[in-house]
Amino acid sequence: MEFALNEEQKALTALAKDFCKREVSPEFLRELLEREPKDRMPWDLIKKMHDLGLRTLTVPEEYGGGGADLLTQVLVSETLGQYGGPVGAVLTPMWRLCGSLAAVGNKEQQDEIFNRVKSDYTFFMHEIITEPDHGHDPLLPHNEPGSGLKTFAHRDGDEYVINGEKCFCGNTSADLFWVHLRTDKNKPLSQSMSLLLVPRDAPGFSVTRINEFIVPKVRLNGDLLFDNVRVPARNLVGEEGKGGDIFQGRLAFSLPGLGVQLGKTQEIYEVTKDYAKTRIQGGKPIFEHPTVGTKIVDMLTHIEQARLLVYKTAWEYDQAVKSGKKLVSPLGFNLCNAVMHELGILVAGHAAEVWGGRATLKELPIEGYIRSVYDHHHFLGTATFNRIKAMSMI
To answer: What structural domains does the chain harbor?
Structure first.
């Protein structure tokens, strides 16, 4: 692995940093997150990011996009996470699904969707798998009878008819949903999961609940209902019953989501280090007291370790793609996810110790950073869950 960034990576990270410094001020973020949930999507910012090519970073070059590899995506998302508040979390789900479409979508699906992504900056997609009674089951997958997904689609001529519920959808306002469901009730989950594209204007589709969390979401998070929703059979992604393989083989596409978190932990470290070097106690900066200074060093050490693992995993995926593979083992992602979840808790805990009572003052940014760590703590499974998954692959 080459540690030096190439010219494209340098240019894109510089572009992302400059954009955030210019457009995403603390005052802007404060005003944005105080809006009503339905009004938080920063469409002006999204239009600017679209025009800069950041929104279409993973659209293939033949469709007019950036065609960025996974390591480049991680680098840019890390920059957005450090300097752009929630901006990175708006873009990375689209990056994942555009990359997925390029890997497993057919030509008809690619033509239709990529052209719309390029021509309409308001067009968003989102992937949904979690259900009220099933969170981790489909991620393992757990093949015991009756476990796993209950949302079901049966074939009716040239259409699929979908019935079921989904929860914790990260963007209920999306235009197109990638829905993981069952297409066979008699086979184990690993052989009966399929993936269907469902437009939000399909009759029978509805949003039944909007969730609010300890960190205000820019995208509306909520629950979905599918009541005899009909979609064309051509909306099937890949083969029927192979949706589990597609999901597992694409988990690496979620690394940019971890990149955003990596950027946030870097920002927590930076503001905490600066505070420790200016806050005077006992006649000297608290950074010079070993009980504080060693915490700062500990934060930096763990961040650098996690960064290397995330970068290496992204690089390995890119090498696999160059060799002709479209789906890869999720082991690397599961290891990264476990490490990143624990990194966030460690960094947030150390920061709270260093800042003391000021860590929870609303007027200081550190309290929001700490809340954001816990808000992301269950992204695609807890640290323990990701280790359990990794056990089966080593």
So the answer is: 7-123 (1.10.540.10), 126-240 (2.40.110.10), 246-391 (1.20.140.10)
